[in-house]
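Lab meeting notes turned into a lecture example. A postdoc, R.K., suggested we walk through two folding results consecutively so the class can see how the record format repeats. The first protein's sequence and C-alpha cells come next.
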Amino acid sequence: MAMSFGTRADTRILRLLGLLPLNGESWNGGRSCLPAVQMALEDVNAQSNILQDYNLTFKYVDTECTSGMAIFRMFESLNVDPPYVMVLGGMCSVASEATAEVTYLWNLTQFSCGSSSPVLSDRKRFPRFFRITLPDQKHKTARIDLMRAFDWKKVATINQALEFFSAVIDDFVREVQNTEITVISQEIFENDPLTRVKNLKAYKVGLYGPKIVWIFFGWYSQTFWRNNLQGFDCGEEEMSAVVDGSFITEEAYKNPKEERGIANMTASEFEHRFYNYHAYDRKYESYNFVAHTCYDTIWVVALALDCTVREMDQRGYAKTLDMFTYADADVNDIIFDCMSNTSMTGVSGSVAFTDSDPDKIIEIERIQDGKREPVGLYRQDKDPSYFEWIEDAIRWKDGIIPRDSTYVRYEEIGIPPTLFITMTSLAGLGSALALSFLTFNIIYRNNRYVKMSSPNINNVLLLGCILSYCTVFFKVTETSSGTLCKVRVILFSLGFTMTFGALFSKTWRVYRIFTNKKLLKRTIKDYQLLAIIGAVVAVVLVVLIVWETIGPHMVETKYLPKDIYLIGNDAEVYPYVRVCLSEYSEYFAWILYIIEGMLLTFGAFLAWETRHVQAVRTNKVSSDDQAMSTRITTVGGNQTSELDANKPRSISQNIESN
C-alpha cells in the first residue's frame, strides 16, 4: 500500500519517502504515527519562515515490520517515483537496519522516528542514518549514574544471545569498566536461561527483596510481570514480589516539561489535538506513545532541509533543492551536515544529535505497590547530565536504601567482661596471697618452724604460682600484639615447671629418705633440690627460646562460619576470635607436654610411694646447708625392728644447725 499527502500547488515540492509498519503480525506502530505525521506536515507547510517557497510531501509504504518487505517497497518507490530528498523510517529496527545499509548508495539521508537497535549507531555500517528515538545503549549513562546516586558499586547482567541485546550489554560493560563499579557476573543465554538463573525464576532462587534491585528497559509493557505466565511455575504474586522495587529507564516519548517548543504547543496540547484529529483511530491507541516523536520527526526534517536550502544559496548552487537527484552526492552531504547540527525543542522534548543518536530526556520509573510509577528524570539533553527527582516519589522498604551487596560486619567474640573481671580478681587474690607467703618466708626465714618447711623450695614454688597467675592478666582476644602471646606462653610454662618442680623435689627428698632401707644417715641439701628444679626449668626455657626463634607466636584471626547471623535484610555479622598461634605449635607444644607430663608422672609416682609417711617430730636446726638427717624409730616398744610395710610409718626430721 502506498499513499501520499501534503502537496500544495504553486510551490516547489520536496518529497519524503516514509517506511511505516502498518500491517503484519509483528508491530503496527505506524498506525498511530501516520496521523501525527499528517498534523506535522500541515503545521510545517503553514509556516512562512521555514522552507519558504517549498512544500513538503510525504509518501509512505507499508514495511509490515520486516526487512524483506521494507527493502522491496523502498526499492520499488525509489525506482518508479520522482527523486526523494530523504527517507523516513522504518520505525522497526529490522526494517531500518535493512534499508539504512543501502540508502546512502542513492545519496539519501535516512531518518527514523523509531528503531532503538544499538547496531544502528554504527556509522561505518549505516553512514547516512539518524533517528529521533533513543537507542538502548544510550541508557547506559543513566544507569551508571543511577547506581552512583545510590552508592551501588556491584552489578550483574543477563541477556539473551541476540545481537540486539548483546550489543547493549557489551557497550554497558565497556563503559562500566572505566568507573568504580564492578561487574561481578555477565550471563548470556540462548533460548532457555535455565542454566544461568534457573529459568529466571528469581523468586525461586531468592533473587528478589531489598538486597536485589532489577533494572529493566522501558519498552516492556506496563504490567509485563503479570503477562503470559502460562507454563511458568511462578504465579502473579511471586512475580510481583520479584519486581517490587525495580527501576525502569525509559525514553521520554513526550516532553515531561510543559514548555512550548518550535510548534508553539506543549505536550498536553498536542495530545488533545491528536486525539481529536480526523485521521486518529482509537483502535490503535496502544501505539499512541510514538505520536510525539513522529510529529517532531517532520519538524526536524523541515529544519534540516531549510538549513540545506540556505546553505545551497550561500554556495551559489545553480539549482534548487527540489531539483535534487540521486547523483547529487554534494547536496546530500549538505543535508547530512544540517541534520547533524539540527537541534530543537518539540512535543517529545529536546532533540539534538551525537553522531546518529539523539540526546534526550530519560524517564526513571520504579515498580512500587504493583505498578510503574515515575520517580524522576535523567536530563541527558543537558551538559552535564543530571537527575531531577520527584520529591518523596521513591518509597524504600523500611526507609533504607538497599546496598549493592550484603553488608558484612565483623564482630569479635571476646571474654565477657564479668568473667574477665572475676578471673582477674581471683588471680590477683592468688598473687597477693602468694606474695604475702613469700614475704613471710623471707622475713621469718630464721624461724625454726619456717626452716623446717624448706623455705627456699617454698619460695620457688610461690614464684611459680605468681608467674602462672600473671598469665590471666594477658588478654590476647582483643589485641594484635604478638609480644603478649610470647610472654603468656613463657610465663605459664616456666610458672608451671617451677611450681610442680619445687613440689615434687620436696616429695623426692622424702621418698629418698623413706626408701633408705639400710637406715643410713642421708643428707639432701636444698641446693641439690634447687639444682634439679633449675635443670628442668632450663630444659623448658631452651625449648621456649628455640620455639620463639623458629616459629614465633603471633595473633591470628579465626572466623566462625557456623555462627554467622543476619541483622535486618542486608547485613551479615561474621563472628571471629583472636588466638595465639605458631607455625610449629604442634611440634614444640608436644615437646613441652612430654616434659611436663614426665614431671607430673614422676610426681604422682612419688606421691603414691610416700602416701603412708607421717612427720613426727623435729629437733635440730641447720642454718647453713639446712641438711636433713633422718632417724627411723619403732612405733612401739624399745626394740628396733624392720618397718612393717603394711602400717603407717613415721619420720623424725632433725634439721640440725652448725
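The second example is placed directly after the first for contrast:
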Amino acid sequence: MTHSSVLSSVKFALVAILCSTLINRGFGQKSGNLVPIKDDDADRSTLPTILIACLVRNKAHTLPYFLTTLENLDYPQDRIAIWIKSDHNEDNTTQILRTWGQEVQDWGLYHSVSIEIIDGPPFRQSDQETAFTWSSKRFQLIMRLKEEAVKVAKKIWADYIFFIDADVFLVNNQTLKNLVAKQKDLVAPMLLSGGMYSNFWGGMKDYYYVRSDNYKDILDSKITGCFDVPLIHSAVLMNIRKKNLPNYHPVSDEPEDDIIRFAVSAKAKGFTMEVCNDMEYGYVLSPMEDESSFNADNIRLQNLRVEIAVYWPDGLPVSDLLKQFVQQQNPPSTIGFDQTYLINLQRRPDRLQKMDHALEILGIDYTLIEAVDGTELTEETLEQLGIKQLEGYRDPFSQRLMTSGEIGCFLSHYKIWEHMVKFHVNTALILEDDVRFEPYFVYQVQRVFEETSNIFLDWDLIYLGRKRSQNAKEPWVENSQYLVHVDYSYWTLGYALTLRGAKKLLAANPLEKLVPVDEYFPIMFDKSNNMTWKMAYEKRDLKAFSVEPLLMYPTHYTNEPGYISDTERSSILFQPNCTLKRDEL
C-alpha cells in the first residue's frame, strides 16, 4: 500500500484434503517457489499420520489463501497425505489446483498427494439452479466423497483424517499439532468469522440449529477449553483407529445434509464432538445463500481478510506461486475524502503493519502521522510548548490528572488539524491504529457521506467509531438513515472532519487548557457532562454527528488479552496549578 509519511513526531497424520485431480506423487526436489516449514523437533517422525481431505467447488478466490495456510502448518509433511476432490467449477479453481498440485509434486515432501478434478461441461448438477445451490445431488456427492476419503485414509494406514473446507484459513500454524496432541476422537478448532457464525453448533433440536446459552461465551473465549457440542463442521479431525466410525448413512429421519447426518451418526455411535478455543486457530467464511454470486463471496472474503489483518501481523498470507491467482485488489484512494490520516506511534510498528495491511485490502490510501510519544514528553517540553492542563480537570473515573500518553494523543490529533488548515484539506478521515473495521466498511462510509450531500447536512465532525455514554439521547438526523445527533461520547478511534471543524478545534486554544481529546470533542459540541470544563470554552458550536450503527471498534477492550493502552498506562506530567507559556508545536 502506498502512503505518504509526514509530520514526524516530537520525536503425517495423513491429512486427507477432499478437493479433486489425481496426483499420487513420489519424493523429489522442491522447486523453491513454496518453501516448507523447517522441522526442528527431534521426535516429529513419531507424530500420528494424517490424511487431509478437502472438497472444493468454485473457490478460486479463497484457494490461494487456503492452500498457503495449509502449506504453512507446522507438522511433518512426510506424515501428511493430501486428498483433494474438486467438481463442477465455473471459475479458475481447476487451474489453481493443477498449478499447486504440480508444485507440491516437485517438493516430494508429502507422503502422497491426490488431487482429482471432475469438471464439465455440464458445469452444474442437473438439480442446481445456481453455482451455489445446495441441491440434493450436491449433498449426495459430498457424502459419497467423504466416505471415499475415509476409506482411502484407512487403506494407507493413517491415524487421523482431517476434513477441512477450502474457505477455512488456519492462520495458526500450530493448529494440527495442537489438535492431535489432545488425543480426541472428534475435535474441531473453533474458527472465527468476524461475526456470530462459527464452525460449531451450541445446540440442535429436530435437526435444526439452536443457540445455546454458552455459545457466545465460547465464541468470545470468555470460557476456554474444549467443549462437548452437538455438531462441528468445516475443520474436523477424526481418529480413524477407532472402530464403528460415524458415517453419512441416515440414522432416522434427519435431512439430507452431510454435517447433520455425520453429527447424528456420531451421537448414535457414542462419539463426542468437541470444539476447542484454547488458542486462536483461524477463520472461516460464513456460508453463501443459494442466490449469491462470485463477486459477493469475494467481497465477503475481503471483509474477512481485513478482520484477520488487524489481529495477525502477517494477515492472510499467500505464497509466491499462488499470488498470480489472487483476484484484483481495490485501487488505492482516499474513498471520497481529500485526505485520510493514520496516527501511529513510531515504537508501535506492529500496529502500523496490521493497519497498513488492512487499509491496503480496503483500498484506502493514507498519510501516516507519526504520533507524539507521551513517554518522551517532559515538564520542560510542555513548558516550552505552552501547554497547560485545564484547571480543575480530573479524570472522571480515577480522579487523576492527565497522563503523558493522553497529552501525546491530543497533540497527535492537533497536528492533523493544523495540517488540514495549512494545506486547505476540506475533508479528512482520521484513524487511530488500534481499530477493527465493520464489514463493507468502504461502501458504508461512502453511503453515509453520499447521504450527507443529499440531505444538505451542515457538519463539522462525524464519529465513525466511539464509546457511547449509557444514557445518551441521540435522535436521528431528519431524513437520514445512517446518522444521529451525537451525545457525550468517549474515544477518537475514527472520525471525519471538515476544514471548518479543524479551524474551530484550533481556534479554541485547547493547549492552554488541555483535556483529553475525547473529552475535548464533547465540550466543543456542547455535550460535556462537566459544566466547569464547558465554561472554559466560550464557543462550543462544533456541529457533530455519529454514524449509526458504528463502523469501527477497538481491536481490544480493557482487561482483554492483548489490550495495551498507550494513554492510560503512562506517567502523570502535569503538576496541579502549573502555569506554562504557549509556543508553536
